[in-house]
Amino acid sequence: GAVVSQHPSRVICKSGTSVKIECRSLDFQATTMFWYRQFPKQSLMLMATSNEGSKATYEQGVEKDKFLINHASLTLSTLTVTSAHPEDSSFYICSARPTDRGPGEQYFGPGTRLTVT
Amino acid sequence: RKEVEQDPGPFNVPEGATVAFNCTYSNSASQSFFWYRQDCRKEPKLLMSVYSSGNEDGRFTAQLNRASQYISLLIRDSKLSDSATYLCVVSLNTGGFKTIFGAGTRLFVKA
Questions:
Q1: Shortest distance, CA A109 to any CA of chain B (angstroms)
Q2: Beta strand segments in chain B, E
């Protein structure tokens, strides 16, 4: 149980285009999902916390107009990178916290590797 | 000061060795503590939760010292398959639960 999927796993796009990444909890409901970014040889950095039915909470320094988050259901959150630039190239990972579990228990998707050319 | 700090690593150890990872956190209001494992270019996976009483899972032992704001992970009888990055993770309630990851410690186990 506790499987999280992400789609796509890898995407290459041109500078200026937008990319949408989906995160789904397959066998549990998740009121809260998290979006992280990880650059090579660095730790995960939390970008935003996504709550079903309400606006996402963004971490300091993360542009909410550039990284659009929608959490429309208890099993799906999407991250849209708008007007992507090469510096947005990174590994984006989502995680989902089961509604009936403790605050630190979260399950990660396999990640999406974004390359902006 | 980082909110969660770990040994810089990398740790290079032979098979069968015992290796210990340390982690400190700065916010005394931290409530939950975890060790995650991350393989290269993969997502993190929960290794174990950490409790004040200490907990053990096979070759892995985790300890928490709230007074010192210190967490440890001990791996006994290291296997080649233990090679990975180990992430110390702290969760706290700041008006909504927030999870903070340490930078990770890379472990290489050699034959």
A1: 7
A2: 4-6, 11-14, 19-25, 30-38, 44-50, 55-57, 60-65, 70-75, 84-93, 97-101, 105-110
Interface residue of A31, A38, A44 to substitute, partner B, most B CBs within 10 Å? A44
**What distance in Å separates residue A41's CA from the closest CA in chain B?**
9
Quick: pLDDT tens for A17-32: 999 999 999 989 988 8
Q: What is the pLDDT of residues B22-77, one digit of tens each?
A: 999 998 888 889 999 999 888 888 899 898 888 999 999 999 999 999 999 999 99
Best CA proximity match to B5, nearest among B51, B57, B68: B68
Under an 8 A CB cutoff, do A103 and B44 touch? no
Q: State the best of B42, B43, B87, B88 to mutate against chain A, taking most chain A CBs within 10 Å.
A: B43
- CB proximity B65 to A under 8 Å: no
- Point out the residues of chain A with pLDDT beneath 70: 1, 102-104
